[in-house]
């Protein structure tokens, strides 16, 4: 028997509504009671077919579904909601210890998961987070200034993925070269999501001595070891309700990887010296410039942890893949640097902009900022020219000797011209295909060819 209309908070005509899908009557009743005490209306059904009928006739702010239903899988409902009601967060209820099902649900688009036996504390926290998600507007932005500058296709793709990922609680693995903005992306995911009012805790995994890792991550009790004069909270406790950003996660030793995996799967941690575990509600975002798949093959990173962290992968493009954005980025960075220094922001000459757009920036945006900061401090005139940028070819492996016979710009033009010629040859002079091979837009390729006099 459905319990969907048995309880209604009085005087709450505008109460938020939750769809509960579970074939066990006692679970439906438990969830219905819990939601009612939170001031929410609950429609409870026991099958996939009933859930689809309810979704077609009623608008909901959250859906809770079991993974196993009499007429199908909860994953089917997750995918159905993703296709038909994209802005409806759906959370799944999984069997105890079923990490594989939880990951599959998150990959399919679930907001979050909770394991049986259902912890009411975790349930209330998850429901609260889901209902605090910012609404999507018609333009597809989740709210506010994204903070990710650029109009290149690569940046647009990243921006759209960040907006979608922010509406989930799934772990995110951010990849990309050093200086490409991985922490910025993590902060944007946090700031655009339901956890934006709670802590964002960045941790550089490579900077923590191995013998201190467990106490730093999980905290410790007074007297747990020599020097533990007071209780101390760990990173997981500080990030409770918010986001834990694990930068350079590949640097974690294997012993710590085991403990981290358990904390993520069980959503509980044990302080060093404690006899019991404590529940923590943390979204984990990790980042690394290394290839985790290769490290797994080499036995240096646990496959089960990789599987758990890599639910959603977000790749940050290198700056050389977004060269059309360099003028905008340079202007923004210069304005900020000049403002911080109490100076008037100087203009960049056209040759200086060309030099920046032709430079490969192995250090990405971080290197661009360093170049501009140095140029601002040492510029010879009231504008920044090529000479002020000091883009030394010695910064590029194997190019110093070749650049000795001419200016840096001449050498870079030569390298760029040859790369374009090679791509055109591979694509039988199809410029659209050549642009794809080079990782740039057709418009960017056309601009570069015109600048290099290659359009004849």
How would you describe this protein?
By secondary structure, the protein is an alpha/beta fold. It folds into four domains: 17-131, Rossmann fold, CATH 3.40.50; 153-315, 3-Layer(aba) Sandwich (Rossmann fold); 321-391, Helicase, Ruva Protein, domain 3 (Orthogonal Bundle); 405-456, Homeodomain-like (Arc Repressor Mutant, subunit A, Orthogonal Bundle). It is 44% helix and 12% strand. The protein is built from 20 helices and 14 strands. It has helices at residues 25-37, 48-57, 74-84, 99-108, 120-131, 153-165, 182-191, 213-218, 235-238, 254-266, 292-297, 303-309, 326-341, 350-358, 364-378, 386-389, 400-403, 408-426, 431-438, 442-451; strands at residues 17-21, 41-45, 62-66, 68-69, 72-73, 90-94, 112-115, 172-175, 200-204, 243-247, 268-269, 278-279, 283-288, 312-315. The strands form four sheets. Strands 2-1-3-6-7 form a five-stranded parallel sheet, sandwiched between helices. The chain has a five-stranded parallel sheet with strand order 9-10-13-8-14. Strand 6, helix 4 (99-108) and strand 7 (112-115) form a beta-alpha-beta unit. Helix 13 crosses helix 15 and helix 19 (431-438) packs across helix 20 (442-451). The model is unreliable at 1-12, 137-145 and 394-404 (pLDDT under 50).
């Amino acid at each position: 028997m459905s319990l969907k209309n048995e309880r209604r908070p009085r005087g709450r005509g505008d109460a938020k509504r939750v769809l509960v899908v579970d074939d066990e009557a006692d679970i439906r009743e438990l969830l219905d009671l819990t939601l009612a005490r939170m001031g929410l209306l609950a429609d409870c059904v026991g099958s996939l077919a009933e859930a689809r009928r309810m979704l077609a006739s009623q608008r909901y702010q959250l859906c809770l579904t079991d993974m196993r239903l009499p007429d199908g899988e909860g994953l089917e409902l997750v995918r159905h909601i993703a296709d038909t009601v994209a802005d409806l967060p759906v959370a799944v209820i999984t069997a105890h210890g079923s990490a594989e099902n939880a990951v599959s649900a998150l990959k399919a688009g679930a907001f979050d998961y909770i394991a049986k036996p259902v912890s009411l504390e975790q349930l209330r926290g998850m429901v609260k987070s889901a209902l605090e998600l910012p609404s999507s507007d018609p333009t597809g932005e989740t709210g506010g200034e994204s903070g990710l500058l650029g109009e290149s296709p690569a940046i647009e793709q990243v921006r759209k993925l960040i907006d979608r990922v922010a509406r989930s609680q799934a772990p995110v693995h951010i990849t990309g070269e050093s200086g490409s903005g991985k922490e910025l992306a993590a902060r944007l995911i946090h700031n655009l999501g339901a956890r934006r009012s709670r802590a964002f805790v960045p941790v550089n995994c490579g900077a923590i001595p191995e013998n201190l890792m467990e106490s730093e991550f999980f905290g410790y009790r007074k007297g747990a070891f020599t020097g533990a004069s007071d209780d101390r909270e760990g990173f997981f406790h500080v990030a409770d309700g918010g986001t834990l950003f694990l930068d350079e996660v590949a640097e974690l030793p294997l012993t710590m990887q085991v403990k981290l995996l358990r904390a993520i799967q069980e959503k509980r941690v044990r302080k060093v010296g404690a006899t019991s575990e404590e529940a923590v509600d943390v979204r984990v975002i990790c980042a690394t410039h290394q290839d985790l798949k290769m490290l797994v093959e080499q036995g240096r990173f646990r496959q089960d942890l990789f599987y758990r962290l890599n639910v959603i992968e977000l790749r940050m493009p290198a700056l050389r893949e977004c060269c059309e954005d360099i003028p905008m980025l340079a202007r923004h960075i210069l304005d900020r640097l000049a403002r911080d220094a109490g100076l008037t922001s100087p203009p960049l000459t056209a040759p200086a902009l060309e030099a920046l757009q032709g430079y490969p920036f192995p250090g990405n945006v971080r290197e661009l900022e360093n170049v501009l900061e140095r140029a601002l401090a040492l510029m010879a005139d009231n504008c920044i020219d090529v000479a002020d940028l000091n883009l030394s070819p010695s910064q590029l492996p194997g190019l110093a000797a070749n650049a000795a016979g001419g200016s840096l710009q001449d050498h870079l033009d030569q390298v760029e011209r040859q790369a374009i010629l090679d791509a055109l040859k591979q694509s039988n002079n199809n410029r659209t295909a050549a642009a794809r091979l080079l990782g740039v837009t057709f418009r960017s390729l056309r601009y570069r060819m015109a600048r290099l006099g290659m359009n004849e």
